[in-house]
Every structure is written in structure tokens, then in C-alpha cells.
## 1
Amino acid sequence: MAVRRQYSRGEWISSGVFMLVILVAFASCSPGGSGESANTDDGNAGLAHVTGPRAAGGGGLSVTAARFSEWPFTVDAGLLKCEAGAVTFEPAGGPRYAVNGTAKDVGYPDISPIWAEDEDLGYGLKVDISEVLNKGLSLC
């Protein structure tokens, strides 16, 4: 018959502390965790400041149709940003639109008003936005 080992109170406490340390470390690294700084200058509290390539004078990356193999928008250029996983696109003089679901979840308006329809596919289908989305995610 196998003998079951009895764990001491100290062993239980140390394993609980270890799990707590792992949990805190994970929470501080995940989007929305305590390791991020809040962005309060544009009314989007809770979003981290964008990192990576920046346009002069503000966060984000200036993009034009010439930078991509297929341009998915009805405007020629704008500012691409990523803050805490929320990828947004802001045309000159326009609002910041949500490029991904994370940005929609934090309140940015849907990109549909400036998202071009794919003339080759028809039926109201839109131009592939994945190249712009991937570029935006690389800014996070």
C-alpha cells in the first residue's frame, strides 16, 4: 500500500505565495494590467500610450495608400495607432475609427464609413484590411 505524504502548513503557504506572485506578474503584463500608463490627453482613459514608430508631434504612424499593396480605405492617408491592443485609424480631420474589435470594445466608432468596397468581389464585400491591421498591431 502506498503511503500518502502529508504537506506541512509552511509548504502550503509557500506554494500559495508562489501562485500569487505568478498571478500578479501575469496581470501586470496583460492589456489593462497595472504595468501600463493611462492615456488621459485624448479622453481615452485606460489606454496605454502608443509605442514604436511615431509621427512627428503625436503618437502613431502616418500611413498612405502608397505604403500598402492594397489600400482598404476611401481616404488617401491617415494616422495609424495602437494603444493597449486597440488599433485605430484617423483620417485628416476625421474621427479615430476602430480597426479591430479591441478598439470597438473601448468605444471607437466602426471603420465602415471609410472602409472601401472590393469592386472585384462585389456583393458589398470590403477590401482586405489585414495588412493595415498587422501594421497597427506592430505599433503596440
## 2
Amino acid sequence: MFNIINNFNDNSSNNGAWSSNPTFNFNPIDKLLEAHEENKNLYERLLEAEKSKIEYLERLLKDR
């Protein structure tokens, strides 16, 4: 058990190279734009759900 933890710590430090010079395999701005688009799509779906709920409630009130 301790040997596994020590190996993990030894391999994860990478002789300090990670902390001084990070390398990204993706463009952070692209990820930000993807997250923004996803949020926009979720908001539009929520808005449609709210509109349909309001229409349903209005129909229920008319029937009374």
C-alpha cells in the first residue's frame, strides 16, 4: 500500500516541470465557449419548459 502511494507521488511530481511550465492539450477558450453554448442551450430548454407550463396552467384556469 505504501509503495503504491510513494510511486504515485514520485510520478506525479515530474521533477517540478508541471508546476513551472504547464502544457495544455486543449484550447481553454474553446472549452469556455463550449460551456457557454451548453449553458445557453440549457437556458433555452428551461425557458421552453416554463412557457409550456404557463400555457398548461392558463388552459386549466380557462376550463374552470
